[in-house]
Amino acid sequence: MIRMEIWINPACSKCRSALSLLDAEGADYTVRRYLEDVPSEDEIRDVLDRLNLEPWDITRIQEAVAKELGLKEWPRDASARERWIAALAEHPKLIQRPIITADDGTAVVARTEEAVRDALSR
């Protein structure tokens, strides 16, 4: 069985739903409360590579801090990629959740039951 890690905010209903589904399926996973155990820029880069996404794809643009930083106006291209990653590391609340990473090198943004099942099916 593949071991997984799930990045959660306990206050998030989608995170709680994902955990319930993982438990129901008997998944082998560890929980990372990413607001307390903040991912480094390197960890964020690794997860983005696994997801095959860019940092702006996993950024919660509606968060108050996103509005303060003016993220909607930031360029979404290679020249700005590191700036986005730095913002996610500095303000983890901006990171979309939950994210499940697996030992096989895959990852998924687990906001739906289908996405959690996708992680479980590997």
From TrEMBL:
Q: Which Pfam families match?
A: ArsC (PF03960)
What protein family does this chain belong to?
A: Belongs to the ArsC family.
Q: What is this protein called?
A: Arsenate reductase
The organism of origin for this protein: Streptomyces aurantiogriseus
Q: Which gene encodes it?
A: arsC
